[in-house]
């Protein structure tokens, strides 16, 4: 199991995956918006998305869990 962690504080602008989706290393999963800049968040491990811990529009802090991959 792997947890995708927010590297910066910001708002969840777009979620590009759904629970049950198969993902590969370096797939773009979420886009965060901070200071009017979009920051894509990439998968660091392949597997299946088992949980999405945020929704579009949520504010997140650095270190928050965004997605769980098994």
From TrEMBL:
Source superkingdom: Bacteria
The record's annotation in SUPFAM superfamilies points to: Single hybrid motif
This protein's record includes keyword Acyltransferase: no
InterPro entries according to UniProt: Biotin_Carboxyl_Carrier/Decarb, Biotin_lipoyl, Single_hybrid_motif
| Pfam families (alphabetical) | Biotin_lipoyl (PF00364)
Residues covered by the Lipoyl-binding domain: 1-70
Sorted keywords for this record are: Biotin
Q: NCBIfam families, alphabetically?
A: PRK05889.1, PRK08225.1
Q: Which PANTHER family match?
A: OXALOACETATE DECARBOXYLASE ALPHA CHAIN
Q: What name does UniProt use for this protein?
A: Acetyl-CoA carboxylase biotin carboxyl carrier protein subunit
**Organism from which the protein derives:** Geothermobacter hydrogeniphilus
């Amino acid at each position: 199991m792997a947890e995708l962690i927010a590297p910066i504080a910001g708002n969840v602008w777009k979620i590009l995956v759904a629970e049950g989706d198969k993902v590969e290393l370096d797939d773009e999963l979420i886009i965060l918006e901070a200071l009017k800049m979009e920051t894509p968040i990439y998968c660091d491990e392949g597997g299946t998305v088992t949980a999405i811990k945020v929704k579009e529009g949520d504010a997140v802090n650095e270190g928050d869990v965004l997605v769980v991959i098994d």
